[in-house]
């Protein structure tokens, strides 16, 4: 390596990318200006920072998840999404090679020039909504939308969304494995603060906070402490600045705390186009938010004047059960805010708030039929090279001292028997429990999933068998995991009615040979309907392991999350 004695190091990675100047550094990665010496073009290269506090196994798992997410983003093609050209490893450290955008970030522009006019903010918002919609359609959640991750071309109108959490620890919450808060809580949706299951709606909240920041020059949730920010996000009255009035229906609609009532991306985009076309504050229609007079930012409202305004005109009140659920999420997040203000680790409260995997097994689920077992059994799972990073990914180990001891399962016929925690026992993310299976392995499964053994396979099923998580252990077979998956794919039409779009990819899992299979099929009955299956098969310690998840095609995002968590937490012994 050649160094200039300053902040710039000159070195070549993967035999072709010359790192020339450091452009920026975040909590998890460094971005370099570089030259692709093979093709003779300028690129940006993101380098994952090594964490010396992690064990070798933890570091390898983090690297594998990083590469999986990077490869997923590389499949996205949209004019307002950063182009990922390559994913390489050099010295066991991953690097992501991307387009080099000649210009600064939206955060830089706000810092240098202050608030941005409503028309320009609407233009930026339209571009970002297009990018977010494209990502969500491909099953990718950004999870870290903020002004620093939006690049503006210097000589043009280009708006590019970058940094899809590639260099962050994968997970549904913005928490590191050691419990410190990373990312930008000012742009994090309240449901993510609470550790609840999150989806595309969380990205839309972040976009709403971003638009508000661009219009006024400061995030509406900026406070002097982490506890203050958490409180502002999940509880305090959201007082939109005067500068946001031209785009108020969009800003307020996106900053709806209930994700089920939050303004959708398509309607937000329509409203922004309406403003650009007319220059007037747009009015929402039945599918969108319409502000009332009380919402206009003429003066700050006292807390007793605050009222709840539906984000979608004409929408029926949510069922009581959903209201209770929403309140529970916010109460949990409020406890986090209060504790964070008192100096308690946010990670201890969020990641392990449900007791570290000792939850109840939930409702019983009937056993799958023999034919269903055959269909789900050989697996199916998205390849690590194509499947977006999971929404939830547990930390390999937890530093929290607040986790409750695991509770034994009430019945071995309905769930796996829990054993005392050990250093090898995986941690369960919020909403999951650790299943110590009698078959000799442990993994995190969603709360409410019931254990159903079927011969050499073990299933963990949701109520009604909507989701089926299967595990199989066996002696190695000829051809290794790749051979096993290819043979299974050849038999796919015979074992899975309506089998189509099957794909097998050779990969590795924690450094061991692996193969991934993904396919869609018609299900075993008309009532069950079309399903999608994800499967990973790998060899480890002289045994072959197979983990798969099968789910309705309309629930592939949840299925992928369950699959990624199961694979990431799977341990033997």
TrEMBL record:
> Which residues of the sequence carry a binding annotation for ATP?
46
Q: Where is the segment annotated Disordered? A: 282-325, 355-434
Q: Do you know which InterPro entries this protein is assigned to?
A: Kinase-like_dom_sf, Prot_kinase_dom, Protein_kinase_ATP_BS, Ser/Thr_kinase_AS
Q: Which UniProt keywords apply?
A: ATP-binding, Kinase, Membrane, Nucleotide-binding, Serine/threonine-protein kinase, Transferase, Transmembrane, Transmembrane helix
Domain named Protein kinase: residues: 17-274
Q: Which CDD domains match?
A: STKc_PknB_like (cd14014)
Q: Name one GO molecular function term.
A: protein serine/threonine kinase activity
State the EC number(s).
2.7.11.1
Q: What is this protein called?
A: non-specific serine/threonine protein kinase
């Amino acid at each position: 390596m050649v160094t200039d004695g300053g902040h710039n190091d000159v070195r070549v990675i993967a035999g072709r990318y010359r790192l020339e100047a450091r452009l920026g550094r975040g909590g998890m990665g460094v971005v370099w200006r570089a030259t692709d010496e093979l093709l003779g073009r300028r690129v940006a290269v993101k380098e994952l920072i090594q964490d010396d506090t992690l064990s070798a196994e933890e570091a390898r798992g983090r690297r594998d998840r990083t590469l999986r997410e990077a490869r997923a983003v590389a499949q996205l093609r949209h004019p307002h999404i950063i182009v990922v050209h390559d994913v390489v490893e050099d010295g066991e450290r991953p690097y992501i090679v991307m387009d080099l955008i000649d210009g600064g970030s939206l955060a830089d522009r706000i810092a240098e020039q202050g608030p941005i006019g409503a028309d320009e903010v609407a233009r930026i918002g339209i571009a970002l909504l297009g990018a977010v919609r494209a990502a969500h359609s491909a099953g990718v959640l950004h999870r870290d939308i903020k002004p620093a991750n939006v690049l503006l071309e210097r000589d043009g109108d280009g708006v590019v969304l970058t940094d899809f959490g590639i260099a962050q620890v994968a997970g549904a919450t913005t928490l590191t494995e050691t419990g410190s808060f990373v990312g930008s809580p000012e742009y994090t949706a309240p449901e993510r603060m609470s550790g609840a299951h999150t989806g595309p709606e969380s990205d839309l909240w972040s976009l709403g906070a971003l638009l508000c920041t661009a219009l006024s020059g400061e995030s509406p949730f900026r406070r002097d402490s982490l506890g203050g920010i958490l409180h502002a996000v999940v509880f305090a009255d959201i007082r939109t600045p005067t500068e946001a009035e031209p785009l108020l229906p969009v800003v307020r609609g996106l900053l709806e705390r209930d994700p089920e009532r939050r303004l959708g991306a398509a309607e937000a985009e329509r409203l922004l186009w309406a403003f650009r076309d007319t220059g007037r504050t747009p009015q929402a229609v039945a599918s969108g938010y319409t502000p009332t007079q009380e919402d206009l930012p003429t003066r700050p409202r006292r807390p007793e004047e605050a009222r709840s305004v539906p984000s979608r005109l004409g929408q029926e009140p949510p069922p009581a059960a959903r209201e209770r659920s929403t309140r529970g999420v916010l109460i949990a997040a409020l406890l986090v805010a209060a504790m964070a203000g008192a100096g308690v680790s946010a990670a201890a409260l969020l990641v392990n708030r449900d007791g570290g995997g000792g939850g109840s097994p939930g409702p019983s689920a009937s056993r799958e039929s023999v034919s269903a077992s055959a269909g789900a059994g050989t697996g199916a799972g998205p390849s690590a090279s194509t499947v977006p990073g999971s929404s939830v990914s547990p930390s390999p180990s937890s530093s929290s001292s607040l986790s409750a001891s695991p509770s034994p399962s009430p019945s071995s016929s309905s769930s796996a028997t829990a054993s005392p925690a050990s250093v090898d026992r995986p941690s369960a993310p919020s909403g999951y429990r650790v299943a110590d299976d009698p078959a000799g392995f442990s993994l995190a499964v969603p709360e409410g999933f019931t254990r159903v053994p079927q011969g050499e396979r073990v299933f963990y099923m949701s109520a009604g068998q909507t989701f089926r998580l299967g595990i199989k252990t066996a002696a190695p077979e000829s051809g290794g995991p790749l051979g096993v998956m290819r043979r299974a794919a050849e038999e796919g039409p015979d074992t899975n009615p309506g089998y189509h779009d099957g794909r097998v990819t050779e990969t590795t899992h924690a450094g061991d040979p692996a193969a991934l299979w993904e396919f869609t099929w018609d299900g075993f009955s008309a009532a069950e309907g079309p399903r999608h299956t994800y499967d990973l098969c790998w060899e480890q310690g002289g045994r072959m392991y197979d983990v798969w998840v099968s789910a309705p095609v309309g629930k592939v995002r949840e299925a992928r999350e369950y699959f990624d968590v199961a694979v990431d937490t799977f341990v033997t012994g």
